[in-house]
Automatic annotation (TrEMBL):
Source species, domain of life: Bacteria
Catalysed transformations (reactions): precorrin-2 + NAD(+) = sirohydrochlorin + NADH + 2 H(+)
UniProt keyword Nucleotide-binding present: no
GO molecular function: ferrochelatase activity; precorrin-2 dehydrogenase activity
EC number: 1.3.1.76
Keyword Nucleus among record annotations: no
Keyword annotations of the record: NAD, Oxidoreductase, Porphyrin biosynthesis
Protein name: precorrin-2 dehydrogenase
Organism: Lachnoclostridium phytofermentans (strain ATCC 700394 / DSM 18823 / ISDg)
InterPro entries: Met8-like, NAD(P)-bd_dom_sf, Sirohaem_synthase_N
Any one biological process term the GO annotation gives: siroheme biosynthetic process
Amino acid sequence: MRFPVFIDLQNRKIVVIGGGNIALRRIQALLLFDGEITVIAPHLHEELLDLFHNQKIVWSQKEYETGDCEQGYMVLACTNDRRVNYSVYLETKGMNCYRNICDCKEESNFYFPGIAVKGEVVVGITASGTNHHLAKNVTRKIQQDLETIMR
């Protein structure tokens, strides 16, 4: 079990490797916290493409290469390619950064939480990286409760 921590991402460089569904979900959550998000991927999910065109994210249209993570305060490996995700882990394990490898909690130094937000209240939810379905359901319930409580 891990201790929950809330960190300031404002104006911090966040590097996301991958441009698919997992990256989309995580970027949508991160956008609430004013980080500077750069996505490295040859292709983007349609909704990420909209965020790029609306200047909410930066897109480096290319395959991941070693060195792409070096400026990241937070690095997320969000691909469905184990080799790429493992390469991101190898690059970042010696760096002083927050690292989340979507397909391997053991290679991550933080879990990406479910997030419920209403006004200034932010709630982070995790099932210790073991049950994403449970964490998602709890997040949804807490978000509904926040909406009711904070009307």
